[in-house]
Design brief:
heterodimer, A: 159 residues, alpha/beta, Nucleotidyltransferase, domain 5, two-stranded parallel sheet, 9 strands, 32% helix, B: 210 residues, 5-stranded mixed sheet, 5 helices, 7 strands, 16% strand, elongated
Chain lengths: 159, 210
């Protein structure tokens, strides 16, 4: 009988947590390698649509980002719930697009200016209206290379 | 002197430190999306001359506010489904109904005289409403680019069978930073030749709001 009692007294040995740092470091390294520092703090919803005929954007050449989408729930009180344009860190109107492109160009070396690509990151649920206006502004300021940034996936089935 | 072993450093807080770093990276970073559909906008021209294009060479696609696709090609007008668009576009581009100097030697289509003449003449026109959803618009763009890529792949393989790759793969290889400059030159020449052979005549009208 005493034999059984002894075993119960011992209880479960504590689980070793010595390898926990290793596991966490592994996760850390994965995230460090697989992600990039955020370019802009988004104030709008920005779930990109998917497409499968995509090309990689050439990082050698300068890229400017224009975001379009509904304001985040936090900003709905200030900006309303219609689609808005975000340039750098602020929500702006379509009229500011030309000034934005001019500012982006001013920061570039002369020979890179014609190579500037405008990456349009538009929310999948957004309406075409604002995007059409932005495209028209881009034409006016002669920034003709654009890229509809999308995730890789099937475009038709994700409707 | 008594030999003393060095006291063991307590590593219990190592996990906390690593977690802190991990959370910092989770918050400040983003998974990079650096791919998409590349397009070129048409420049604004002051005095545009009207160009006369034969009706049969236009594949006019309209996406309305309810995200429905309306196709007007040749003489038939109909509502189509998004999943049929790619096949219809390929059929239109590849038709090769031209005769005489407009004849298309490379087309393998039905040679319907009521549809497009050849790759150079065939034009796809896309218009949309201001209320069209962006994801539908992107899906339509994607399908049309897919149709062009399908034909370009075919022609690339036919023209350069020794390379053992198609147009899209060759383009990827051309953009790959690890490809040697000499090979790049060679690929660029071939890609340009195919782009001339199957040009992307894809026009987007300005959006109307009726």
């Amino acid at each position: 009988m005493s034999k059984f009692k002894k075993k119960k007294d011992g209880g479960l040995p504590p689980i070793s947590t010595a390898s926990l740092p290793d596991i966490v470091f592994m996760l850390l390294f994965f995230f460090m390698v697989a992600t990039v520092i955020k370019e802009d703090n988004l104030k709008i919803e920005n779930k990109l649509p998917s497409a499968d005929q995509i090309e990689k954007l050439d990082k050698k050449y300068p890229i400017s980002y224009i975001y379009i989408g509904k304001p985040n729930p936090n900003y709905i009180d200030t900006y309303g719930s219609e689609d808005r344009v975000q340039l750098n860190d602020a929500l702006r109107s379509v009229d500011d697009v030309q000034a934005f492109i001019a500012a982006e160009r001013a920061a570039l070396r002369e020979e890179l200016i014609p190579k500037l690509t405008v990456s349009l990151k538009v929310d999948r649920e957004a309406k075409m209206g604002v995007l059409t206006d932005v495209k028209q502004e881009l034409r006016k300021t002669n920034a003709l290379k654009i890229n509809y940034t999308t995730r890789k996936g099937d475009a038709v089935s994700s409707q | 002197m008594a030999k003393r072993s060095a006291p063991e450093v307590n590593a219990g807080s190592m996990a906390d430190i690593a977690f802190l770093l991990l959370i910092f990276f989770l918050v400040t970073t983003d998974i990079a999306v650096d791919s998409g559909l590349s397009r070129k906008l048409p420049p604004i021209e002051e005095n545009q001359d009207d160009i006369v294009i034969k009706q049969k060479n236009i594949f006019a696609l309209n996406v309305n506010a309810n995200n429905q696709l309306f196709l007007k090609a040749g003489e038939d007008e109909k509502l189509i489904e998004l999943k049929d668009l790619r096949a219809l576009a390929v059929k239109f581009l590849d038709n090769g109904g031209g005769t005489g100097k407009d004849a298309c030697k490379r087309c393998r289509g039905a040679k319907d005289p009521k549809s497009s003449d050849n790759f150079q003449k065939a034009i796809i026109s896309l218009s949309n409403d201001r209320l069209t959803k962006y994801k539908t618009y992107i899906a339509v763009q994607n399908e049309i680019l897919a149709a062009y890529n399908e034909l370009r792949n075919r022609e690339f393989k036919r023209e350069y069978p020794k390379l053992g790759m198609n147009f899209v793969e060759a383009n990827e290889k051309y953009q790959d930073a690890q490809t040697k400059p000499k090979e790049k030159e060679d690929l660029k020449e071939k890609l340009e030749a195919i782009k001339l052979l199957v040009p992307q005549k894809f026009s987007e009208a300005e959006t109307k709001n009726i």
